[in-house]
Amino acid sequence: MIPIAKPWLGEEEKKAVLEVLDSGLLAQGKKVAEFEQQFAAFIGVKYAIATANGTTALHAALLAQGIAAGDEVITTPFSFIATANAIRMAGATPVFVDINEKTFNINPYLIEKAITPKTKAILPVHLFGLPAEMDKIIAIAEKYHLAIIEDACQAHGAEFQGKKVGSFGTGCFSFYPTKNMTTGEGGMITTNDDSIAHRARMIINHGSEKKYYHDTVGYNYRMTDIAAAIGIVQLQKLTAFNQQRRLNAQYLNQELHHISGIVLPENHTGHVFHQYTLRVKSGFGRSRDQLNTGLQEQGIGTAVFYPLPIHKQKAYQQFNHQTYPVAEQMAHEVLSLPIHSGLRQLELDTIIRIFREIYTQKREGKP
After folding, report:
1. 188 with 162, same domain?
2. Where residue 322 sits, what CATH number does that domain have?
3. I want to staple 51 with a disulfide (CB 3.0 to 4.6 A). Which of 56, 75, 77, 246 is the partner?
4. Do 243 and 222 share a structural domain?
5. Which of 255, 280, 276, 294 minimizes the C-alpha distance to 343?
6. Cβ(258)–Cβ(272) under 8 Å?
7. CB within 8 A of 106, min separation 6: which ones?
8. 10 Å Cβ neighbour count for 149?
9. What is this structure's pTM?
10. Is 360 helix (H, G, I), strand (E, B) or coil?
11. Which of 358, 357, 336 is nearest to 3 (CA)?
12. Residues 214, 216, 218, 224: what is their CA dihedral angle, to the nearest 10 degrees?
C-alpha cells in the first residue's frame, strides 16, 4: 500500500522525546516556549502561541479577535469542518462564499456582497497548501474594517508574494500527523499584534496570566513539551519536506498532463502541496469514484477531500440558505493522490502507471 500521507519521523524526534521524558517535565514548559519562538521566526511574526491542535488554534484566535455571539465570519464551504465549527464554537455565524475552481480557495470577488453590518472577520483557508489570494482579501478587510483569521492548517511554509501565510492576519496551524510537519497533535496561533497574542495566551490557559488568577473564562488548550520537542525537530526539516513535495508534484504533473478530462493542480511557487488534488471531469475516462476505487484496489492510497461541502452537512442545515455551485461541483470531481515527502521514485512511477491504466479502461471498452 502506498499511503496518502505518512509522518516522516526519525531518530532525532525519538531522542528529543526521550529527553523530555527523562526530565520529568511533560506539560507545557521550556520546550513549548522554544518551539513558539522558532515557529514565529520561521513565519516571520512577533508571536506564536502553541495550542493542543488546529481546531483549538482557530477557536482561540477567533476569541482573541473578539468574535462573539451575533457576529458573522465569512469563510469557505469547501474545507475540513473544523474551519466552520470554530466559528460556531465562538458563538458566531459562518457565512459561506463560493470558491475558485482553479485554486479550491475562497473566491475573493464574491466576498463583498456577503458582507453585512454583522460581519466582523474573514476567515480564508489556504486549502491543500495553496495560499488564498491574500492581496485581494486584505484590501476588502481594510475597506470594511474586518479582522483576518487565516486557516493555514494545511499550509506550513506556503508563501504568497514572498510572504509566508500566517503572517497576513492571525494565523492558525495544525500539526496533525498528516500535515507537512507534525507534533502528533498540536496547533499554533501566529500574530504580530501584542494584544491578540496576550489574549490568546490567556484563553488557552484557563483565562489566566498569573497562576490561580483568572481574568476571563478560558480553556485548557495548551501544548505539551513532548509535542513541542517533536515540533522543534520537524520544523528544522520542513523546508526540505516542502521542497520534496513540490518536486513530487512537478513529476506527477509532467507524467499526467496529457490525459484528457483531468485537471491538474498548478505547481505554483508558493504551494507546499499538503495534498496533490486533481479534478476528474465527467465524460472522458473513468468517473472520479470509479478511479478512486480502482486506485485503492491496486494499493494506491487516495482520498476525496471533501465529498460533502460544509453547508450540505447535517450539522449545518440551518445555514444552508443558498447553493455554492463551484464548491458543490468540486466535491464531485476532486481526488487526491499521495504526495508526501517519503515517496520513492518507484512509488511515484507506480501511481502514474496504475492511474493511466485505470482511467483509460473506459475509452478502450473495458468493463
Report:
1. yes
2. 3.90.1150.10
3. 56
4. no
5. 276
6. no
7. 74, 75, 76, 97, 98, 99, 100, 124, 125, 132, 137
8. 29
9. 0.96
10. helix
11. 336
12. -40
The x, y and z cell numbers of residue 43, run together, are 513565519
User: Is 13 within 8 Å of 231 (Cβ atoms)?
Assistant: no
CATH for 197? 3.40.640.10
Query: Per-residue pLDDT for the chain (367 aa), expressed as one digit of tens each?
Result: 999 999 999 999 999 999 999 999 888 899 999 999 999 999 999 999 999 999 999 999 999 999 999 999 999 999 999 999 999 999 999 999 999 999 999 999 999 999 999 999 999 999 999 999 999 999 999 999 999 999 999 999 999 999 999 999 999 999 999 999 999 999 999 999 999 999 999 999 999 989 999 999 999 999 999 999 999 999 999 999 999 999 999 999 999 999 999 999 988 889 999 999 999 998 777 899 999 999 999 999 999 999 999 999 999 988 767 899 999 999 999 999 999 999 999 999 999 999 999 988 754 445 4
Taking Cα atoms as reference points, which of 294, 298, 292, 253 lies closest to residue 273?
253
- Specify whether 271 is located in the same domain as 354: yes
Cell of 85: 465549527
The number of distinct structural domains making up the chain is: 2
Q: Which of 213, 234, 255 is a domain's end point?
A: 234
CA distances from 318 to 96, 111, 192, 313 (A): 12, 21, 36, 10
5 found inside a domain: no
41 part of a folded domain: yes
Kindly provide the residue ranges of all beta strands, DSSP E only, lying in the chain, ordered along the sequence.
47-51, 72-75, 93-96, 119-123, 147-151, 159-160, 163-164, 170-174, 187-191, 208-210, 213-214, 262-263, 276-280, 334-337
Angle between helices 54-64 and 82-89 (to 10 degrees): 40
Residue 194 neighbours by CB distance under 10 Å: 10
- Asked if 179 and 46 sit in the same domain, the reply is yes
Q: Is residue 301 part of a domain?
A: yes
Q: Are residues 83 and 201 both part of a single domain?
A: yes
The phi, psi pair for 24, rounded to 5°, reads 80, 0
Instruction: Sheet containing 93-96: give its strands across.
Output: 47-51, 187-191, 170-174, 147-151, 119-123, 72-75, 93-96
Burial of 204 (0-12, 13-18, 19+ CB in 10 A): buried
In a domain? residue 3: no
Is residue 178 domain-shared with residue 258, that is, in the same domain? Answer: no
